[in-house]
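Quick bug: Gluconokinase output formatted oddly.
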Amino acid sequence: MGDPAVVVGVDIGTTSSKAVAFDTTGRQLASHSIGYPLEEPNPGWAEQDPDLIHEAVLGVIRSVVDELRVPVAGLSFSTAMHSLIGLDADGTPLTPSITWADSRASAQAERLRAAPSGLALHRRTGTPVHPMAPLPKLVWFAEQEPKLHERVAHWVGIKDLVLRRLADALVTDHSVASATGLMDIHRLAWDTEALRLAGITEEQLPQLVPTTHVLPGLTPEAARATGLPADTPLVVGAGDGPLANLGLGAVRPGVVACSIGTSGAMRVMVERPGVDPLGGVFCYALTEDRWVVGGAINNGGIVLQWANDALAPELGEHAEEELLDLAATAPVGSGGLIMLPYLLSERAPHWSALPRGAYVGLTHGHGRAHLVRAALEGVCQQLALVLASVRAAGNEVREVRASGGFARSALWRQILADALGMPVRFPAGHEGSGFGAALLGMQALGLIESIEVAADLVRIEETVRPDPASAATYAALLPLFSELYDALVPTFASLRRMAPSLPPEPPPTAPPR
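Here's what came back:
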């Protein structure tokens, strides 16, 4: 019997691209990443150079291929979701890659969301009507850049562009398409009403294909650049959110994947698409019989970074460990201090670009430790609201698996378990979306029977159980946390209206990821 086959998972992220080679036993054989900048030419804009990203993808594949020195059975792709690029008829970009973090279409999103058909649009496409999504961005282009909008021959995402250059095929997978706001998730077809709102035709979008669709090979130029044979198959792959579930082994119904990096997310795998009646969650595809329901939050680790810069600048950069030690000295519930951590507005479950951060309940007795701990608790309480929305969509939640930079902190791990009121399991070191992409590729190429093997390949390193008293405190505070958002919406709206007449707000401490 020969050696296990090797598939390279290529993860096209917001701040870097990474290629990771795995064999069919789940063993990692090689890895390489290349970063690139996120540009903010105007307040609220978040753009990238698609050519730089394409070069990074070629570079990481080449580095891994050179390191491997064994045959590669195929490439399989993961990508950050919600990106939008306008191409001319020759495939040359007419716009930068506009990322999920770009909020220029806030006014368009709010108008679409408030319309009588707004909730129906969300429930039909699975994508919240929010400035992160391509649909409101397309409306923005139609209104603000009409001449450019007319010149665009094709609107694509970043992975679509990379695949066009690698394999000369203009396709997009059901997973990425389910995060555009343009595809009917129940019919797996472009949505007529969404296209009308966007002012585009079906012919201006890539061909829809399953995430397991296999492109037969590379162009001669791509083969030379990557060092791979021209007949190396490419599995189109999926969005990084659904693939992160797969990479964590959270593939069976009832198993939630939670991540807190700079931002955060909570997703559960389901067998049929659907959105809750209030539209609190998204629904994105992985395969025809696997979908993820959940929500993303803008404010995860960025909140701790802000606390470092704003509350303890004398500690210097990267003083998170000292800040966490300080937060641990404050009591559970931060002495009645609540922080709404909406430093970069917010996504789930309210899906609005209006909110701002707030501390409520501040007294003379609160010190820096309380302020920092309340920030951590606010992030975890926001995730608890997302979990409640996941349940409201009719999904059973039996298990939570978590990953991300926050997992290095014992305090933060415990606060999350306490805020969610259930045990949280932490897998051993993994590559998340890259591993998920490789597994999906293995299934598509017939190298493994099913992506279900992920549940057995991922080893749980630690389980953190909630402290009953702390969990009770957070459960009591959660309704107050939730009510504060509704109570402050008029204030958020007033601040938005007043913004042009006020001195400009300071830029964020770092671009969101």
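Actually, after a second look the formatting is fine. The first strand starts at residue 6 and ends at 12. Closing.
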